[in-house]
Design brief:
Elements: H1 7-17, H2 19-25, H3 34-43, H4 47-55, E1 61-63, H5 64-68, H6 84-99, E2 111-113, H7 133-153, H8 159-162, E3 165-173, H9 178-186, E4 193-202, H10 207-216, E5 224-227, H11 235-244, E6 252-254, H12 267-281, E7 288-290, H13 300-304, E8 313-315, H14 323-331, E9 340-342, H15 348-351, H16 353-363, E10 369-371, H17 382-389, E11 397-399, H18 407-417, E12 425-427, H19 445-448, H20 453-469, E13 476-478, H21 487-491, H22 493-514
Parallel strand pairs: 1-2, 2-3, 3-4, 4-5, 5-6, 6-7, 7-8, 8-9, 9-10, 10-11, 11-12, 12-13
Length: 515
């Protein structure tokens, strides 16, 4: 539905729609109107006007999340529009703010917060060109270095060197932009634009380089740390990281697959796991922990029990948890606070149905997101699943891809899901009867797309009709075959693909040499 605009916002749109006129007239605009004009310019993708607004920003702070979020004059949230034209204009405007010599006002800007920008799958900007987190990291680092070179090589206003602006950003570093970002962080003390890393994501990066750059980010400010995919971090490296670096404000931690592997544990490893748990307990702000694809059989309690702050988000997908692990989770103080839980890859219905039931009952008052992909949930388990989900009245998202449910089982489950008042997003599997007879679960990637597409479309229509008849048009139901959209992976998939090919080639060469 179209969002209502105030007369002020309509006037702001009219003003910025003529870019040439707006740029000439900014000198006579009241300072308190700059935020209004910025949002109007962003909506209309007026890059030149955005640049000049930022270049002449008269206020103390510049917060992208607040400027583009819901406002009195225009309630639509534009922070999900990562429009390349707008964001590049914004960042180059920030660079030129330092170089500009205003005659009508004193420069006040102290803090620029870029962390409110949200990367999403569907973009509504007309240019359809996005600037993701990796590209924003790259551009800001380049602008900081270019600015330093310019200030050193030209006779600038001495006042430019006195400017100090903290730029809060979520950094995303891979092998391809590592050198550039490292140089920008090394020289930030000399640069008027000072990169302040609030969240850090590392992918496709050598372990030695990760350890070097993480120290440059000023870990005392980090709130979110994501070490994913092609960073070969193992438990001994994690212990070294936590022993050498303090993360007092860390709220969210994501670790790569196989960080923990209890299959090869020794007495030393047991002590190491205990030490890591103790170090995590010192992170008093930590409420989100993602440790997918680690082997933690029988060790979840040792890792999580030292924590003094209850977790609100926990991803232990494909961690080979046993009954003792599930029993600990169900009875721990974390259970009553879990807002997001991912137990994918565990046969919950067969191995520990009662403890799973207990876990959901304890978290039901707060649980908003539940992921149960590849959990071998069959038609015979649907009644028990419904019973477990019934108290979860705040559930907004339910993902259960990869489970061997029939069309009838899905229809029965969807009839119940209509009763969950807060539900907004459902990811359901291709029905088992759409696949050839004898298909085995979990389905491998090669067979994933080999189903009766016409029959699937027919079933999907029936499921959406169930939602429609229950007046639940607000619920989005879909089947993303290869998992949910990941903006970071999408942005860097070419680099990651090249890395995987290179690794495969090196493995083949080593194998050939050994022969």
């Amino acid at each position: 539905r179209p969002t209502m605009k105030s007369l002020r916002f309509i006037s702001a749109e009219a003003f910025v729609s003529n870019a040439e006129f707006a740029r000439k007239s900014l000198g006579g605009v009241a300072h308190n109107l700059f935020p209004l004009l910025f949002k109007a310019s962003y909506l209309l993708e007026q890059g030149e006007v955005i640049h000049d607004l930022v270049e002449n920003w008269p206020l103390v702070d510049f917060n992208m999340g607040k400027l583009l979020g819901t406002t009195v004059d225009y309630q639509e949230d534009l922070s999900r529009r990562t429009c390349s034209v707008c964001l590049e204009s914004c960042l180059t405007g920030l660079r030129d703010y330092v170089l500009n010599h205003p005659s009508t006002y004193v420069k006040k800007l102290k803090v620029v917060d870029l962390t409110g920008i949200k990367d999403v799958e569907v973009q509504f900007c007309e240019c359809k060109k996005t600037m993701g987190r990796w590209a924003r990291t790259q551009l800001l680092s380049k602008l900081c270095l270019d600015l330093l070179v310019y200030l050193q090589q030209t006779q600038c206003n001495p006042a430019a060197f006195e400017i100090s602006i903290d730029v809060l950003i979520d950094l995303f570093v891979t092998e391809r932009n590592y050198e550039l970002v490292t140089q920008a962080l090394l020289k930030k003390c000399c640069c008027p634009l000072k990169i302040r890393c609030v969240a850090f994501r590392s992918d496709n990066l050598a372990l030695q380089k990760f350890f070097y750059i993480i120290k440059l980010t000023d870990p005392s400010l980090l709130r979110k740390l994501e070490i994913v995919h092609n960073v070969r971090l193992e438990m001994e490296h994690l212990e070294i990281l936590f022993n050498s670096i303090h993360f007092p404000l860390l709220m969210s931690l994501t670790l790569p697959a196989r960080t923990f592997n209890v299959r090869r544990f020794t007495a030393t490893d047991e002590q190491m796991l205990s030490n890591i748990g103790e170090k995590m307990s010192e992170m008093t702000q930590l409420t989100e922990l993602n440790i997918p694809f680690s082997v933690l059989t029988g060790r979840i309690q040792k890792l999580l029990s030292p924590l003094k702050t209850p977790l609100k988000m926990l991803d232990v997908s494909n961690c080979l948890l046993n009954h003792a692990d599930m029993a600990y989770l169900a009875n721990s103080f974390h259970a009553n606070h879990l807002e997001a839980l991912d137990l994918s890859g565990h046969n919950i219905a067969e191995l520990y149905p009662s403890t799973f039931f207990k876990l959901l009952s304890h978290s039901s008052s707060v649980l908003q997101s539940l992921t149960l992909e590849d959990c071998n949930i069959q038609d015979t388990h649907v009644n028990r699943l419904i019973l477990a989900l019934s108290p979860c009245q705040k559930l907004q998202e339910f993902k259960f891809l990869g489970n061997p449910l029939s069309s009838q089982g899905l229809k029965y489950l969807f009839t119940f899901l209509c009763e969950l008042p807060m539900l907004k997003n459902v990811e359901f599997p291709v029905p088992k009867d759409c696949y050839p007879a004898g298909i085995s679960y979990p389905i491998d990637d090669a067979s994933l797309c080999r189903f009766d597409h016409q029959k699937y479309e027919s079933v999907a229509e029936e499921l959406n009709l169930i939602l429609l008849q229950a007046n639940r048009e607000d619920v989005k139901a879909s089947t993303p075959l290869f998992g949910s959209y990941d903006a970071a992976v999408q942005e860097t998939n070419n680099e990651l693909g090249a890395y995987l090919i290179k690794s495969f080639k090196e493995t083949l060469e080593r194998f050939t040499n050994s022969l």
